[in-house]
Specification:
Blueprint lengths: L4 E5 L3 H11 L5 E5 L2 H11 L3 E4 L8 H11 L6 E5 L5 H9 L5 E4 L4 H17 L7 H11 L10
Parallel strand pairs: 1-2, 1-3, 3-4, 4-5
Length: about 160
C-alpha cells in the first residue's frame, strides 16, 4: 500500500501545523504551503491524493484554487476547505457546488468529523476495488444468467 500524500495549505503556520498534527497518526505524507501560488506549484509537482486548504489565501484565493484543482483532475483529487472566515450554509453550498470542494469545515471544527472526512475521501479511491467482484465471480454470474451453470457436456 502506498503512502497517501496530503497537501495542507494555510497562511497561518499554526493552523497548518494543527492540521498536520491531526493527520500524523495516520502515517500520511503531509506537504504544506502558505499561499495559493505555492500550493498550486506543489500540487502540480507532488500530485497529492487530497488537498486541505483555507479559503482565504494570498496570490490565488482558496475557492479559485479549489476550482482549478477540481477542473484539472476532473474531480479525482478531493479538496477540503477549512475556513474561519466564510461562515454559513451559503458559503458551504457554493464551495461544494460551484467550486467542486469535496467537504467544507468552519473553524473551529469537530476534529473527529474532519479526520473521518479525510479518511473517507482517501479510501474511496484506494478501496473501491475491494467491493468489486473478481473475474471468476463475474464469469459464474454470467454463466448462470445464460443458463450454462451446472450443465456439463456429455460425449
Amino acid at each position: 500500500m502506498t503512502v497517501k500524500k496530503i497537501l495542507v495549505v494555510d497562511i497561518d503556520s499554526e493552523a497548518r501545523e494543527a492540521l498536520s498534527q491531526l493527520l500524523r497518526p495516520y502515517k500520511f505524507h503531509v506537504i504544506t504551503a502558505s499561499d495559493g501560488q505555492e500550493a498550486y506549484e506543489k500540487f502540480k509537482e507532488e500530485r497529492p491524493d487530497l488537498v486541505i486548504m483555507e479559503a482565504i489565501l494570498p496570490k490565488i484565493h482558496g475557492f479559485e484554487l479549489t476550482e482549478r484543482i477540481t477542473s484539472e483532475t476532473k474531480g479525482r483529487i478531493p479538496v477540503i476547505i477549512v475556513t474561519g472566515t466564510y461562515r454559513g450554509p451559503q458559503y458551504r453550498n457554493e464551495a461544494l457546488t460551484s467550486f467542486g470542494a469535496s467537504d467544507y469545515f468552519e473553524k473551529p471544527f469537530d476534529k473527529e468529523k474532519f479526520v473521518n472526512s479525510v479518511l473517507n475521501l482517501l479510501k474511496e479511491d484506494s478501496e473501491i476495488w475491494l467491493d468489486l467482484p473478481g473475474p471468476e465471480e463475474v464469469a459464474s454470474f454470467l454463466a448462470k444468467k445464460a443458463g450454462l451453470a451446472g450443465k456439463s457436456k456429455k460425449s
